[in-house]
From TrEMBL:
InterPro entries in alphabetical order: Homeodomain-like_sf, Transposase_Tc1-like, WH-like_DNA-bd_sf
Protein name listed in UniProt: Degenerin-like protein asic-1
Domain Transposase Tc1-like span(s) in chain numbering: 69-126
Organism of this sequence: Labeo rohita
Source species, domain of life: Eukaryota
């Protein structure tokens, strides 16, 4: 049971055929699975459905497809490059609109950041991971054991 604008195509055809046969609105409503008022409004006004509310979109589906094609050609273009190419193709849209459309496609219009490598000084200051610390600890113990004349295999079994 919904409003008149929510009637499906099947419900509308059922309403039209039963109305032509001369059936009552309550009977038509039960057969179509909607309210009697929806049947009345459909019969009297021939409403085609609910219209979209709000502002119209400034780009068409065809223009959106052209932007999607540009994005898929090179995923590493930034927003400025995409907007420039799209407007050169004849689309009148702002950068914000371009950004929204690209996000609708599920893409992010930005260049991925490339981080610089660490220099020698930064690597020295970086805290050691547990694996590096453990390896240096084992190496330190092995040298102590070798200096004292003990067995390295026995020590490795204890540490591991």
């Amino acid at each position: 049971m919904g409003k008149t604008a929510d009637l499906t195509v099947v419900q509308k055809t059922i309403i039209d055929t039963l109305h032509k046969e001369g059936k009552s609105q309550t009977f038509i409503a039960k057969e179509a699975g909607c309210s009697q008022s929806a049947v009345s409004k459909h019969v009297n006004r021939k409403l085609n459905g609910r219209k979209k509310c709000g502002r119209k979109r400034c780009t068409t589906n065809r223009e959106n497809c052209s932007l999607e094609r540009l994005v898929k050609q090179n995923r590493f273009k930034n927003l400025g490059e995409l907007h420039k190419e799209w407007t050169e193709a004849g689309v009148k849209a702002s950068r914000a609109t371009t950004h929204r459309r690209v996000k609708e496609f599920g893409c992010s219009c930005r260049i991925p950041l490339v981080k610089p490598l660490l220099n020698h000084r930064q690597r020295q200051r970086r805290p050691k991971s547990s694996f590096q610390m453990r390896a240096s600890f084992v190496f330190h113990l092995e040298t102590k054991v070798l200096e004292s004349g003990g067995r390295v295999d026995k020590l490795r079994a204890q540490v591991a």
